[in-house]
Structures are given as C-alpha cells and as structure tokens.
Amino acid sequence: MALVHWKILEFPKRLHIMVKDYFKTLRIIYLSLCYNHFTTCSTVLDTACEPMFWIVDHTTRFMGPIMVTLVVLLTTMVVMVFYICIFPHIYYQKDILWSGFHLFFSHWLLMNIVFNYVMAAFTNPGHPSQNVSQVVSICRKCVAPKPPRTHHCTICASCVLKMDHHCPWLNNCVGFYNHRYFFQFVFYMWFGTVYTSLAGYDVFKQHFFGNKELVVPAFFFPVNMAYHLLTDKRSDKKIYSNMSAPMMFDSHKLANEGLEDDDIKATLEDQLIHNAIILQFLLCAGVAVALGLLGIWHARLISRGETSIEQHINKRERIRMRKKNLVYRNPYNFGFIKNWKMFLGLGKGRTFFRHILFPSCHDPLGDGIMWETVTFKLDRSPTVLDLL
C-alpha cells in the first residue's frame, strides 16, 4: 500500500518530465529540418509580417493618386478662401503698402509650394542602371546591382538611389533627385499654413468666437462649446447647425448699407463663406503642426547626413559597435554646414538666394552612385577620356 502511494505522489513529476521530453523531441525535429544559422529574429519578424506589408504596399499604391488629388483640392480651396475672404479683410483693415506686402509674400509662398510639389511628385528619384560599376551588393528583390545608399521600394518595385521613403502624398519615392524638392515643399507648405493661419485669425475669430448668432456645422459644436467652458464665458450666443439661422456679417458693410445685424438673414453664399473660413483655419492650423514635426525630423536627418532608412541602419550599427567597445561614425556625415550644402546642391556657383528662395531645377551634387565618405574622397580631376 505504501508503494502505490509513493508512485501516485511521483506522477506529477513524471508527467512533467515526459511532456518536457516530448517538446524537446519536437524542437530537435523542427531544427533539424528548418534551422538556418544566418536567420535572425528580425528576419523571422519580417517574414511573419510579410502579409501585412503586402497589404500596406498595395493599399499605398492604390491610394497614391487619390492623396495627390486631395492635396491639390485642399490647396486650391485654401487659396480661394484666402483670395475671397482673408485678403479683402487685410485690405480694408490695413494700408495699401501692407496689403501689397501680403500680396507679394503670399504669391511667393504659393509659387514655391506649387513648384516644389510638382517637381517632387513628377521627378524621377533615380534608379541604378544594370551596367553600374560601383556595386556594393545585389538587390534581393529585383536581382540588380545595388550601389551605396540605394534601397529597394516595394511599392514602386524598383531600387531607388539614396532612398529616403515612399511618400503617398506625392505618389512617388523620395530619392536622390527629388529629395530637395520634397523637403522644400514641406518647409514652404508649413510656412504657408502658418502664414495663412496668422493672417486669417482675425476673420476666423469673428466667425467662430463672435458674440452674435453664428451658423456653425454640427461637427464644430464640441470645439466651440469646449472653448466657452474653458474660458468660462457667459453669453447669450446660440450655436446653430441649420442653414436658416442668422449669422454674423461685416459690421462696416452693414453700416454702409444702412442695415442692422438683425435685419437680414444669411444667404447660402454667406453661409458657405462662413463655414469655409472656419474650415480653412482649422485645416491650416492642423497641417502646420503636422508639417512642423515632419520638417523638424527631416531637418535633423539632413543635419546628420543620413536618410530615414539610414537612420535605422546607423542606430543598429552603433548598438553593435558599442558591444565591441567601439564607436560607430556615419561615413556620410561631413558636419552640419557641409551636409546642408550638399543636400541643397549649393555648389558650382549656386547661391541660396537664387536657387533655394526661388524655384530652381538644378540637379544635386554627384551622380547618386559614387559617394564620398569621411575617409574616402572622390577624384574628380578630368581623365584622358574626358579630355578627348
């Protein structure tokens, strides 16, 4: 009886050992069939996420033309509201010289925004040719020569010289030949949204925070109500979302016509203008914040002489070198000033005033295939063949 009791007590332990041996056997069988010494955790993770990457790539490829159209429509809407609502307000409130400055400055911004966006969207970012001599490796996707700083874009299905990322808002890759256009578009668009928000704030404030009855779309109600709750304002102002409610008008215009605010009702045109002013300010303010953060991120990368893809590669290399008590240095980081000059293509007699502050189609320095590093300098002296 004591012997039976002893075996019953040992059963959980024996079951644990049996299950452990069973899983160990399965692991040995799996490793004997599937083990690869060169496989890493990142490779396994990439393989597991491949279906998700496929969905994202094909969705981005499909959404690209739609997002480009959206950028064009929203930019056109903002420009029209500025012409119709904001600039007349500036003209009536300020003198002719100040209005002339706004007219010149706004058109300078618009010119740079349109030019850099068109060039960034339609300029070929650069692709390596099949007979390139400076080859670091072979692309695993397209099985083609892969020069330094070149990466494969799964959306465009090709390798891109000095690839930074694929931008769905451009429906194009950002690479060697259009990287400058992309950054200048981000900068000028950010500058334009900030300028439009500041120039149109008085008009927006009158339409959104005025002490008269306003026509406010229903989806603006929480924002307007939150403002009055936070500022603890007590007023008899009512917020409407219907299309027949009274709205605020230009008091100077009404005075000239001998009318009072309560004498007329808002027409459909007035209501559309009212809603467009509110929408424009909120749109420009939100885009200004988003583009500001994006611009700071890319300016930081440019200052360090790296792209968005190289930032992850350099980070991984720094960690690997730190484990060996070594210091990793980005081979393409020539210092803050030289990095910006190389990025903006300021060489060969080009100036910041002429080629950056105004539209310019100048090519970047180099060919995107051969690259100087902090330890290697290209010999650009003419050869015998060049002289011939």
TrEMBL record:
It is an enzyme of class 2 (transferase). It comes from the Eukaryota. Residues 137-312 form the Palmitoyltransferase DHHC domain. Its main location: membrane. Coiled coil: none annotated. One of its GO terms (molecular function) is protein-cysteine S-palmitoyltransferase activity. Pfam families: DHHC. Keywords: Acyltransferase, Membrane, Transferase, Transmembrane, Transmembrane helix. It is found in: Membrane. It catalyses: L-cysteinyl-[protein] + hexadecanoyl-CoA = S-hexadecanoyl-L-cysteinyl-[protein] + CoA. Its EC number is 2.3.1.225. The chain crosses the membrane at residues 62-84, 96-119, 181-201, 213-230, 277-297. GO terms for cellular component: membrane. The DHHC domain is required for palmitoyltransferase activity. Belongs to the DHHC palmitoyltransferase family. This is Palmitoyltransferase. The gene is LOC106069101.
